[in-house]
Amino acid sequence: MRYILSFILLMSASGLLGQSTLRPRGDVNCDWKANIDDVTELIVMMLSGEEYHAFYTYAADINDDKAINIEDVTALIKGLLDGGLPPMPSYSGTLPVLFIKTEDCKNIVSKEEYLRAEWWLDAMGIDGYQSIGSPDQPRSMQIKGRGNATWTNLDKKSFRLKLAEKQPMLGMSANKHWTLQAQALDWMGQVSDALPFEIGRRMGMAWNPHMEPVEVVLNGQYIGMYFLTEKVRIDENRINITEQKDNETDPAKVTGGWLLEIDNYGEPNSIHITEGNGLTFSITPHSPEVLSDAQREYITNFLQQTNAAIYIGNKVSIEWERYIDIDALAIYYVVQEAVDNPEAFSGSCFMHKERGENTKLVFGPLWDCGSSFVRYNKDYPFNEFIYENMPSYCNARWISEIVKSPHFQLRVRHYWKQFYEQVYPTMEAYLDAFAEKVEVAGNYDHVRWPKYHGNNTIYRLNRYTKNCFNKKVAWLQSKWGYDSGIDPDPQDIQPGF
What is the domain extent for residue 7? Predict the structure, then answer.
């Protein structure tokens, strides 16, 4: 009894700590102070069998043993009495910091249902960035989970953000729709998306998402380094095509614009195509999402005609080019080969189509290149194309057949020449600047998420990413290279339909 009375007196004397940007360790009930209420809450959690979760019960795991148990209760009481609660991990301040507070500090547990939230961005005085809002004047947003296997299987999760108003962010064009990419599995230096996106931009792709590294504080807890990324969507500053309404029935309007994804999961509105090789795969419409009969019939027929043309027996024929923009596909394919992404045509493979009877599928933008260089081991020479000897979770949708086209091979070599002579020589400097930018924040991220190896970015990029990249480029040059004075696809060589 004397112990409990002493504890209560101590808490009464301590007063309110007030809300700061980071919660103290032991703040179980998310009120930005540690006191007797947190002990009560922690006991309730323990008795109810609450399991440890790296996001949502992190503050309650006082002794850091990845469990919620009586040892945490004892550690919390002891820490409150002697002022010895361990600190929560914090951000480095070398990158802008995005603060998010969900309504009532609710956990983000769904990919379908948004939570209301407040946010502000502290640019930390870094040149070229502007702060947005403040703790006293936060902005409004909605937030939910995103990802497939990464959402289900990883502790460090990615999120989708929907701002209340369009907002330019960290030099990127104004929009409401953004993602926070965790890049948890990117142990080669956090660049599996940034590198191909940048190559695509330098190769002249119409649009690829921009992404900027930030440190994130969610409900007062530092949750690591993330990449604030432009979401793939139809918009004048993103995929700039005509937007098609859901449930459109006008025959002229259902021809576009379409935003489609070759999808290795499949959604309720997906369209299923059986390839000429007998394998079935899904193509998911992202815009429009809710299809009328007229929309579904049009796009299904178009995709089936595309598929039939790809698998035509005579590979000299370019019938498939009636349906697919060969130049956009050739650039897309060159980028994916350069970063050795065997999952390139399995999932997260976006295509779009403008309105019109004679418009074509345009491959792009690039997205989710997390399998870049996944075939790495210390002895692998990177001497295969991405559709050869793929990992078990990858499938070469369409591309392994399209590469049999002599005309496509000519276009690939044409754009490879551009990449090898103009883009590739610039990429080492890009990687060096990227690594220097995120090095310190990556080390802080590693304190928060030690199992995901986000630390030592400069070493990882030099030791692994550059090594893999240079090997693959050298091998591709041996297959596709021409002398510098030769254009492999002069414009006067254009076979007809």
Answer: 2-82
